Structure to design on (603 residues):
């Protein structure tokens, strides 16, 4: 019965392998990969309903009861993220159909996108910390290939940096797991949490938690984001959108899991550290977002700001703030994909990457212009769009915890976000139209369809805050009460 | 015994760090491979080195099989990552005509 929760990871892997054998048949590849993601959406909606009725679901692989075997655990937090990731990936895939060159499609592009999704979903669902490392690696290996698709000089250069940074950070992850196993003697996340609660969070364990924080900081771009803008601004548009939407979010998810489930006893050390890192990320990201004129770099720095913003919620760790963080995480997955896709369309249409070289796009592309405006408002947090609720809740949590510095930085960064994107809107969409209509690359239907799906997503998430609240409150409750998770995993069937 | 293996892991990390900081791309990749192996030694050491039999009930004093399983998984991943990065390095060499990291920087506008 619970077998269904392995599907979000299993389906993409299987279909990805099948696609290897369908190499010449591009149509079949497209249809199969889109169907896989649609199936994932359906499965995650179903599982989400099941969790509301029957509580957290788990699947012990090979019948090995926890804590001895590896297992998948589906709580509301994981499944909400799987659902959002599937929707966004489907939109990026639709964009790929009309933008990716046939030569890429014949070279296993769709297979690697599916492997990336498999890794992302696996990371969200796993209940074992070593399995988390493995799923991270699946995701990263696929991303190493995807980032180099196209093989332009700049791309290869950034790929090398990206690969080396990630190999080293994965190594630190491995070392942290080794330490954890040496001290605690288990790898099951619920079991680790239980044992830490029994023996108390000793200084050794706190050090290990900080090592893990370093790893996830590197992956999520929390303070250690120096590699991020370069790497996220070189791949082809749909890949950049997938990276911007999903990869950093997996790091954030891991941070939430680790610091709410296992290492929640010494909050004045770990959570203060997260708070300081989030503050520095907000400052650095804001400076970066207004400093550059390259559209893709501005978009990448917006990713950095969002990471800082979400982690403010974890740093204050009040119920409202955690709820806000979950809300904002979901919002950010959708809106960052939309932002990267729109920026990609602007570059494709005008052939320029600097905002000063693009002018008056709105005359020939009114829909594109208004979509960009909508994205700007949503990112800045104007109601009724989806950014609003998350910001209000995180702000409420920060006020409740008395973290006024973080509160101020978080909201000042929103102004920087608004400014950096408004600047693009004013210079690139308004003004005199410098390119005549027949010189321009026409906007293809698939580009607008995919961006419209995401735009509808952000409006729906904003207007549908009330029905969504049930799931998000459930997710926050599980995060705040580790015992619920532990009982679900270690309790008998 | 644990001390000796820990020192060995330390030596490997030192070597790997030296290689990672060098300018040649191939050396950097070899550095990452060595780094991973230092990690494997660490996993084994932290789970305590001891003699014993296979972990089957009734076979005497069994050892913990989990570290071996972790290391095996990690070796496979390390192999795949090294393979991918070698291909990437070769493509970079073909495309940019150099394997020196300081020359890879090139023109910032390109």
């Amino acid at each position: 019965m619970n077998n269904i929760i392995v599907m979000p990871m299993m389906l993409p892997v299987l279909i990805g392998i099948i696609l290897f054998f369908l190499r010449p048949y591009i149509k079949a590849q497209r249809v199969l990969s889109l169907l896989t993601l649609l199936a994932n959406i359906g499965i995650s909606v179903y599982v989400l309903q099941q969790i509301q009725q029957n509580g957290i679901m788990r699947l012990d692989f090979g019948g090995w009861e926890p804590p001895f075997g590896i297992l998948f655990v589906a709580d509301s937090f994981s499944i909400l993220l799987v659902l959002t990731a599937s929707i966004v990936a489907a939109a990026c895939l639709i964009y790929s159909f009309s933008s990716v060159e046939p030569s890429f499609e014949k070279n296993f592009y769709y297979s690697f996108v599916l492997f990336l999704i498999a890794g992302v979903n696996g990371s969200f669902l796993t209940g074992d910390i070593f399995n988390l490392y493995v799923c991270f690696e699946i995701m990263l290996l696929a991303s190493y290939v995807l980032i180099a698709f196209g093989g332009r000089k700049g791309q290869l250069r950034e790929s090398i940096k990206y690969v080396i940074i990630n190999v080293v950070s994965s190594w630190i992850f491995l070392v942290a797991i080794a330490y954890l196993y040496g001290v605690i003697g288990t790898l099951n996340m619920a079991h680790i949490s239980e044992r830490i609660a029994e023996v108390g969070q000793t200084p050794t364990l706190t050090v290990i938690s900080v090592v893990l924080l370093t790893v996830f900081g590197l992956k999520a771009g929390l303070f250690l984001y120096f590699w991020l803008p370069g790497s996220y601004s070189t791949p082809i548009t749909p890949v950049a959108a997938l990276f911007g939407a999903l990869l950093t979010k997996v790091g954030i998810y891991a941070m939430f899991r680790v610091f709410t489930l296992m290492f929640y006893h010494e909050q004045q050390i770990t959570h203060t550290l997260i708070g300081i890192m989030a503050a520095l990320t907000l400052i650095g990201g804001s400076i970066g977002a207004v400093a550059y004129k390259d559209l893709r770099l501005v978009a990448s720095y917006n990713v950095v700001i969002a990471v800082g913003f979400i982690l403010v919620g974890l740093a204050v760790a009040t119920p409202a703030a955690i709820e806000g963080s979950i809300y904002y995480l979901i919002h950010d997955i959708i809106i960052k994909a939309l932002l990267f896709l729109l920026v990609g369309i602007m570059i494709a249409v005008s052939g320029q990457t600097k905002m000063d070289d693009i002018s008056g796009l709105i005359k020939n592309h009114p829909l594109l212009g208004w979509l960009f405006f909508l994205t700007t408002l949503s990112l800045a947090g104007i109601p009724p769009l989806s950014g609003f609720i998350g910001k209000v809740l995180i702000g409420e949590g920060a006020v409740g915890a008395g973290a006024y510095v973080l509160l101020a930085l978080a909201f000042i960064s929103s102004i920087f976000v608004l400014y950096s994107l408004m600047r693009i809107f004013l210079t690139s969409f308004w003004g005199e139209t410098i390119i005549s209509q027949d010189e321009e690359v026409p906007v293809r239907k698939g580009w607008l369809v995919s961006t419209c799906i995401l735009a509808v997503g952000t409006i729906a998430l904003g207007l549908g805050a009330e029905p969504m609240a049930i799931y998000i409150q459930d997710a926050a409750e599980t995060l705040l009460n580790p015992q619920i998770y532990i009982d679900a995993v270690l309790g008998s069937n | 015994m644990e001390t000796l293996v820990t020192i060995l892991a330390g030596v490997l990390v030192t070597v790997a760090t030296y290689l990672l900081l060098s300018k040649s791309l191939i050396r950097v990749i070899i550095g990452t491979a060595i780094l991973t192996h230092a990690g494997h030694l660490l996993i084994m050491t932290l789970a305590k080195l001891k003699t014993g039999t296979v972990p089957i009930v009734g076979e005497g004093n069994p050892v913990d099989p989990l570290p071996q399983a972790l290391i095996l998984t990690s070796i496979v991943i390390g192999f795949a990552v090294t393979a991918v990065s070698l291909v990437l390095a070769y493509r970079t060499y073909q495309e940019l005509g150099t394997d020196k990291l300081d020359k890879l920087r090139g023109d910032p506008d390109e």
In short: Chain B has a mean pLDDT of 87.
